[in-house]
Amino acid sequence: MLEADFFEVSDEFVNLANEMLEEWAQPMLSAAIMHAAARFNAFNYLSQEDDDPSKAVGFLTDQYRQMLEEAIREMQRAG
To answer: Which of 34, 44, 54, 69 holds its CA 20 to 30 A away from the CA of 78?
Structure first.
């Protein structure tokens, strides 16, 4: 996977969420995005040959924490 492709796909989700702000409240959209990510990641996990869901949960929560912390730092700098 190319980094540029990763960010292009990610930006498409952000753009969709921004469009949905016209109809839905921001906190609800935030919660819905997390729920959708959890469901899709569960689907992805179940399509793998891994028998230890705790490893997947640990990996994904660590990744989310890192991405969230990085996004907060970037947005604070952009201020």
So the answer is: 34
Q: C-alpha angle with apex 61: 60 to 62, nearest 5 degrees? A: 90
Look up residue 3 and give its two tokens.
Answer: 């980094």
pTM of the full structure: 0.85
Q: Specify the number of domains making up the chain.
A: 1
Residue 1 reports pLDDT greater than 90: no
Average pLDDT over residues 41-70: 93
CA–CA separation, 70 and 3 (whole Å): 16
Q: How high does pLDDT run on average in the chain?
A: 95
Token pair belonging to 21? 């702000």
Instruction: Provide CB contacts within 8 A for 13, sequence distance 6+.
Output: 33
d(CA 17, CA 77): 22
- For 21, phi then psi, to 5°, come to -60, -20
